[in-house]
Amino acid sequence: MTSSTLNLDGTWLLRNLNGEQQCDFTLPGDVFSALLAAELIPDPYFAENEHLVRWVGETDWEISKSFNVDPHLLEGEHVFLELNRVDTMADVFVNDTLIQSCSNSFTRYRPELKSSLVSGENTIRIVFKRIDKIALERAQSMPYPVPFSAGDNNTVPHMNTVRKTQCHAGWDWGITLMTSGVYESVFIQSVHNQRIDYLTNVQRHSENGVEIEFSTKVFIFQAGEFSLDFSFNGQQKRITRDLEAGEHSIECVFNVEQPKLWWPVGFGDAHLYPVEVSSLDGQSIQQNIGLRELVVDNSRDEIGKRLTILVNGIEIFCKGANWIPSDALISRQTEAKHRGLLEDAVAANMNMIRVWGGGQYEYDHFYDICDELGLLVWQDAMFACSQYPSLDWFLEEVGEELKHQTQRLSHHCGLALWCGDNEVIGSLTWYDESKNDPLKYSVNYDRLNHFIDQSISKYDPQRMFWPSSPCNGPMDFGGWHDDTSGDMHFWNVWHSGESFDAYYSVRPRFCSEFGFQSFSSLPSTKEFLPEGEFNVTAPAMEHHQKNNRGNSIITEMFTRLFRMPSSFEQQLYLSQVQQAMAMGVGIEYWRSTRPVCMGTLYWQLNDNWPVASWSSIEYNGRWKQLHYHVCRSYNPVMVTAYVKDQALQIWGVNDQAQHAEVFCQGGIYDLNGKLLVELPEQSRLEAGEARCLFSLPQSEWLDDVRERFVLVRYQGMCQGKVYEGERLLFLTEPKRVALPAATINHRCVALDDGKIEVQLSSNKPAFYVTLEVDGDTGVFDDNSINLSVGETRNLVFTPRQGISLESFTTQLRIYDLANATMA
């Protein structure tokens, strides 16, 4: 007989257990989204409504549904219920029989169901228990306290005792929505004598091509003959085995001559091959896989220990950002939203995304899109910024979680490494308990971390396991701020209040976290602020800042760099200028130190609700100024300018595997736009080279820093591709420069494809010229630019929602640095 499935998605009934609230529930989905759709709660993202909906997470909920079972479904020898992403502590009943108690939102459950089903009408209920009580009960039952990060990073105590997305309890950028629900399809599967599961591969690359060995798990219920059909690269193979009852692995080997290799963004095509494995009863697994050889080099050198990723023998400078869950309302975590954000990352010349350990293992489509786009993935295990238990019951939970997640994800060619946690080893120095008894808590940490390593390596032995971020490497955790080895988190500028020049004080081998906050743009801010609160210190505005010192840090840095902003909207604008300046210094300087540094992943790409944060893309998808600057800072061929070692230095960086020709224009200008010191026009950069192209001693320009600025415009040409960018550098704090009050003229023109062109010119040099429009979250082809006297710059806007020329022209705002501040 053939296998069959019954999908249970669609409309369910949601109610709390005392019956006071009930409404429709769409599965896959979450409780908050259902209540919001039924207008039983206000929008939690608006104003301070977060406080008004907290009760939802402090309530037990039930979802239920009636469904019909065809007699054919019951003909299978075994019938299973497939449960994925059940959040979190939940009991599942079918026809009032308890069939599964869930306790880990990262684990798949497959309870046997046949004895509980009847032909015709059946019922299913899932009862979700409130997490805060269970977390407290678990913490109180521990033989020793397990400290967690309270305050900014967690508003619900003891979240570290439950296997649930940690940032559901809030973070220093995140709202607290202690949601529950089921976030993937629920279905019933009927099989006869076998079930196939997972499809992994091991690749062996040589001069003769690639040998790829596929392996799939087979569960046999009765001993006998079993066949699997494999289809790959135009070839079909049938594997037949006599198998005893139990779990088996079935392997099939293919050879590919002259393979089309998979490459990260910027190094070649991200070519994918379809593969399918199917059983004779109709079960099948389909994937698209890339052929590539990936090595993580953590070897010693004269400085310390590298962290360099090589793909197909080429060293890759990893350029990217950290990813957090895309929405606190889980129902809004759609494939379309994820594709948009990942495509925006690629548009900014990124080649890596780090899936951060306080969030979630992402959906299958997320990793499929990364493979398709050529994005490498740094994958954290889901542990962050707290200590965690290492008791047997907790390890059992974690073991089942990693057994599933590792086998689910290991086939993805973009998956570069597994990391054991985010800052958990570092957090040993945060708490009184661990500081007073370091041996006990070090042993506790080591037991869990070693178990994570073993669990992942058992099912994905071909990938590097990186113990923690940051650390120096396997069995070598090093110092928290050690820039000689492994990866580093550099937060001195934001958390410690050091100047942007602090980025020049370190040369990390790989910086996997660093960041600086900004406010959202005015159009985005309008979406969550009520009338009368358009002020940074207004209650609703402060509520949308989750870092305890965030607004103070942003404002204090204003006083160091700028004259004070002239209005609320200029304060928002200026915060984004400041953020772009900070990140530009770090990214571009560290890129110029290659091959010492071989990766920068800034914090953070995206937001999960509208908030002041470190993101480069606002919650609604609108690009901050930072994202436009990152496009230039991450250019495969890039030119940067900075002052170091008492000299103005112009550096060229070529990340490509071929040489590049670089053409520069500009140099040092006065405030009237007159070029005083001109740069060399043309240079050649070898493959993978970073080199100083020009240096001018400080003694030759120091006396006139208030009347000078540096502007470099460049074209990098490599393999027929042209990379353009610009770099602005003030030689002192902008507040000390008598910035000319420029008059910026503009003209808007509708293009045939629905896009709109804005033609810009200025009578004086204008800096950080930024366009924004209320009616659409679309993207300009460039923004936050610098205008020279007498030039016309044409910026093209690609709408997302659709906007008329008239509406665009009416709602367009143009900012620049001089006009943003008080005289």
From TrEMBL:
Family classification: Belongs to the glycosyl hydrolase 2 family.
MF terms in GO: beta-mannosidase activity
Protein name as it appears in the record: beta-mannosidase
Top EC class of this enzyme: hydrolase
Beta-mannosidase Ig-fold domain boundaries: 751-819
Keywords, alphabetical: Glycoprotein, Glycosidase, Hydrolase
SUPFAM superfamilies given in the database record: (Trans)glycosidases, beta-Galactosidase/glucuronidase domain, Galactose-binding domain-like
The keyword Glycoprotein is annotated on this UniProt entry: yes
Record domain Beta-mannosidase-like galactose-binding: where: 12-183
Domain of life of the native organism: Bacteria
EC id: 3.2.1.25
Pfam families given in the database record: Glyco_hydro_2, Glyco_hydro_2_N2, Ig_mannosidase
Database matches in InterPro entries: Beta-gal/glucu_dom_sf, Beta-mannosidase-like_N2, Beta-mannosidase_GH2, Beta-mannosidase_Ig, Galactose-bd-like_sf, GH, Ig-like_fold, Ig-like_GH2
Keyword Glycoprotein: yes
Domain Glycoside hydrolase family 2 immunoglobulin-like beta-sandwich: 240-292
Catalytic activity: Hydrolysis of terminal, non-reducing beta-D-mannose residues in beta-D-mannosides
Biological processes, Gene Ontology terms: carbohydrate metabolic process; glycoprotein catabolic process
